[in-house]
Amino acid sequence: MFLDALLDALFDSAKLFPFLYLTYLFMEWIEHAAGDKFVDKLKGANKVGPLIGSVLGLIPQCGFSGASATLYAPRVISVGTLIAVFLATSDEMLPLMLS
């Protein structure tokens, strides 16, 4: 039983590894190709930053909150955008907004 579970986990991991590797390569390519342009556009999004952040936060993935915190550290995005992303990605957003 344990061996079956281990083999299933290994097979599932082997199937997922190429997709994750290609995704990582694509993200690195984007970062190197358009990194400075992307940061400049984020800095120029002043008033619509929270709107863009909340729309991106609607995508069900917890990585956006971590990425937005990383962008907030060097002051690329504003605190309003950071809060919008945190609220949009939070599982507890609805009770928080109702309270």
* Unreliable parts: none
Can you tell me the overall shape?
flat
Work out the number of β strands. Answer: 0
SS class: mainly alpha
Described by strand count, sense and barrel closure, the largest sheet is: none
Helix content: over 70%
Q: Over all CA atoms, what is the radius of gyration?
A: 18 Å
Q: N-to-C terminal Cα separation, in Å?
A: 47 Å
Beta-strand content bin: under 5%
What's the SSE pattern?
Answer: HHHHH
Total helix count?
5
Average pLDDT across residues? Answer: 75
Please give a structural write-up.
It is built from five helices and no strands. The chain has helices spanning 2-43, 49-57, 63-72, 79-89, 93-98. It starts with a helix and ends with a helix.
What does the secondary structure layout of this molecule look like, with pairings?
Elements: H1 2-43, H2 49-57, H3 63-72, H4 79-89, H5 93-98
Helix pairs in contact: 2-4, 3-4
Brief digest:
With 99 residues, this protein is an all-alpha fold. It has 5 helices and no strands.
Core attributes:
single chain; 99 residues; mainly alpha; 5 helices
